[in-house]
Structure formats: structure tokens, C-alpha cells
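Quick note —
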Amino acid sequence: MRKPDMKLTFVLVALLVLCAGLLAAGCGSSSDDGGETADQAQQEIQEQKDVAKEQAKKRAQQEIQEQKDVAAAQKAKAKQKAKDTKAEIQEQADVAAAQNAPGAKTDCGGGVQAGPNTSCSFAENVASKFKSTGQSSLSVYSPTTGETYTMNCGPWKDAGTVCKGGNNASVYITG
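Predicted structure written out below.
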């Protein structure tokens, strides 16, 4: 048997190690073959997280804006309702003031009008008593207060009769 040459063995072992090293290097990934390193994968994950955070932030901002818009619309609606209510109250106050203004009369029908502090039921009682008696001084019952009042009657400029008295009552009779 022949003894192997030491130099040849050393060369063969060196070639074997070199081939193994090249083979191992070829199995790993490199940036040239499209593979990713761990750092690149971490960077991509971080970028995806950043994109997701930005999208969540935009959605939150949109929701907040929508809530602000709804609140503004509700506020405007409430403001308009308050304005309408105020106008309605003012109109009612104007009507009441006109009815209680000096000279303001309520038509009670049948040629009878009630002055500002006078109910139609009392004015009708005054007119009925005046027409039936023709007297200028009358004692007349008020269904509104349950009291009897003295009314003094005389000519009225509109070709009729006016009776005044009681608790600042006035009755105008034309029929």
C-alpha cells in the first residue's frame, strides 16, 4: 500500500474547505438576489406600522370633524328655534299690548264692543241692561269677577253709547 502524500492531502482538504465555504456562501441570501436581511424586514414592518398609524390618525380626525359639524348644525338649529320663539313671544306681546292700549276694543258681536279692561260677557250684560232700561246709571253683574259694578252711560262720538265705570271698564254700544 502506498502512503498518501501529505502535500496532496493538505491540498485536497483545503479545496474541500474552500468548496464548502463557497457552497455555504451561495446558500445565504444577498441583496443582489432579492432576498431581505433582518434589518430590511424590520424596516418594512416599521414602515407598515407608520402607515397604519397615519391612517388611524386621519380616520380619527375625520370622525372629530364630523362630530364638530353635527354639533354646529345642532347649535344653529337651536339658535334658529330660539330666534323663532323670541319672535313668537314678541308677536304675542304686541297683540296683548294692542288689546290693552287706550282705545283698543274687542268686538263682542251684536253691536257691542268691550274696552281694554272689559270682558265680552260683562260688556254684553251692560248692553242688555242699557237697552232694556235706557238708564244712564246701571248696576251690572260681571260673570268674570262675580261682582256687581256701577256703569255710567252717555253718548259716544261714533253715533252710539259708551258706558264707563266699574274697574276701569268701558263698553261701546252701537246696535
